[in-house]
Design brief:
Elements: H1 2-7, E1 10-18, E2 23-30, E3 34-40, H2 42-62, H3 77-87, E4 98-99, E5 105-115, E6 119-126, E7 131-136, H4 138-155
Amino acid sequence: MSDKLLSETVQQLSLEYFADEDRLFLKTGFSDETEYSIWLTRRTVKSIWFQLKELDELDQSLNHVPDEVTIKREVSPIETLNQAAIKRPELEAYKNRVSRLLHPVLASSCEVKEVDLKFTSLEFVAKDDHVLRIVLNDELKKMILKLLDQGLKEASWNIGAHHAHIMVSNQNIRPLLH
C-alpha cells in the first residue's frame, strides 16, 4: 500500500478537531480520487510538529536569500487549493473520493523520513501495518504545519510549540524554608 501512495499526488488536506475523542482527524485526498483518513493523538501531533519545524528551519537556513533580493513567484494551483482547505476543510471534492480503508485508523507513530536520498516524506504508521506516506515538498510541509497550528489552537493543546511568556512580579517574595 505504501508504494502506491508514493506514486499518487496529494491534492487535498483537511484537519478537524473532535472534542469527544480529544483527537485531530486528518483527511488526505489523492490524485486518484481516493482518500485516507487517520486519527492523530496529542502525542503524535507533538512528534510531527517538532520534526516538521526542524525540517523547515533546516530548509530555510539552506535556502536563505539575502533581504535585498526580492523574488516574485506565481501562486501554484496546489497552494490555492491548500488555502481553500484551510478556510473550508470539507470541500466538495471529498464527496466524490473513495476511502482506501473501511474505517479511519489511529496513528500509532509518525516520522519524517528521507527516502533514497531523493525526497523527504511524512509517514504515519497505524495498527495492522497501515502506512500513510506523504511526499513532502516545501509547500506541502508549510501547509501541514499551518493546519497543525490551527488544530492545536482549536484543541487548546499545549505541546510546547509556542513560546510562553514569563511574567515577573515586582513584589518582594520571601523564600520559603523547609
